[in-house]
Every structure is written in C-alpha cells, then in structure tokens.
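ZP: hey, is the LWBT4IAB complex queued? I don't see it on the tracker
AM: it wasn't, my bad. submitting now with these inputs:
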Amino acid sequence: MQFARVNDVVLHYQMIGDPNTKPLIVFANALGTDFRIWRDVIIRLVGDFSVLTYDKRGHGLSETGPTPYTMDNHVEDLAALLELVGARQVFVCGVSIGGMIAQGLASSRPDLVRAVVLCDTAAKIGDDASWNQRIEAVNAGGIEAIADSVLEKWFTPAFRKPDNPEFAGYRTMLTRQSAEGYAATCAALRDADLTDAAKTLTVPSICIVGDEDGSTPPSLVADFAKTIPNTHFEVIKGAGHLPSIEQPERLTDIVRAFAGMVRAGGRPN
Ligand SMILES: O=C(O)CC1=CCC(=O)O1
C-alpha cells in the first residue's frame, strides 16, 4: 500500500524495509517539496534502517483536503501515519517545516519518537508579513510567481546552473505542487511558534544546517540549537536549505552517526 486515509486526507507514503527488524527513520519534507528530495539519503541508509517517507497534506500525491492548515494538522497526520504502520519510537528526520513537524510530534507524542534530526529548521520560521506576502503572491500567480526567489534560498549558486538537470528537475517539482496546499502550509508556518516545545524537548536531538541556507541561515539554526537541552549542532558545507539534495552523502553520515550514538545509549555533546 502507498496511499492511506489519515485524519481527513489521503496521504501518499512509502515504507521501505521492515520496522520490526530494522530501526525506522521517518523523513518529513519542506514546504513545496515531496518525498523525492530524500532519495539520495535513503539509498545510502536502506539495509541498516527501515525508512518511511510521505508527502504531507497539500504536497506531492497527497490530497489537499480542507484549507488553510495548522501545524497541528501536519503533526497529527504524521502521528496517524505512524500509528497506521504500527511504528513507535522512531527516528524523525525533518527539514524546514518537516523539522517543525518533528519538534511538534516529539512534544505531543513522545511515545512515538526516539530521537529527532532537525535539518535547516527552527522553532519559528519567518514572520506574519513575509508569509502573508507569499500567500498573496501564490494566490495571485501560482507557485511560478515565487519559484525563482524560493530556489535562491534552497540551493547554492553552484547548483543553480541552467545546465544542471537536477536544478531543472527540482524547479519542476516545486512548481507542480498544489498552489492551494502550498499557500495553506504557508499559513501553518505563519501561525506556528514551537519555542516552548523546543525548550522542553527531552528526546535526543541534533540540529543541522547548510552553510549557504538562504531560508534558515546557520546563525538562526545555531541560535535555535542553543534553546534545545543537550542538542548537537552541525554545519554542512556546500549546501543550501536542502542538504539531502546537495550534500546527501555528508547528511547521511551525520544521520547515521547520530542514530548509532542514540542506539548505543549516548547523548550528543
Ligand atoms: O520556501 C522557503 O522559504 C523555505 C522554507 C521555509 C519553511 C519550509 O518548509 O521551507
């Protein structure tokens, strides 16, 4: 199965491997992306881990459902998906809003979460004005209207070359997302502040950021990391907002080392 109704929408998901025999890592995506962004990390992890990926509501092949969304909608979807596949005590690796979903899940459902990998994220991303402006632009002109400015934050100049087919492909992924689902998720981001959840995070965690992230820059993620008890902080060179695409090998190494340390009973720092 790769589609399931959870809460009030049908979600698209993919389970690789058996969570009963291999530790499960769940990957949660950024705004405007679907689960294909994790491919080059997943192919390096399968065999040692089971892997669950999914398209959050309003993205990829998941339904849009009623809009706008709240962060709780996204957190409850992931909780329901984990219950559906019978998984508990999982590693959650989330990028950007996916990292906020991971924080929200660890806070509201600690029974489901063993540890979190928080990539290019924070407790609060952006402000009311910037999200409202983006929602208005998408409502008026579709995702195409904001695509180039988003891609500048997602990727380093070295990646953003017209002759790079990967860059062209991920531009297509972005512009083919549902404009309604995208704007609804911008509203969830605008209204979410997980500062209190981050301060009381009890599961092991690591914060990671690309050194050229134009959306959640290293200084923001470093400040965020300081608010989380006992976390660890890593900067990935040569990556923007989506290190799973630009530096999958390095990201995989960090995730693998962190998961190994957690499983051995250690804590970061
Ligand atoms: O689109 C961006 O600016 C990057 C981003 C912010 C939150 C998210 O999920 O992606």
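AM: back. Residues 248-263 form the longest helix (16 residues).
ZP: great, adding it to the tracker
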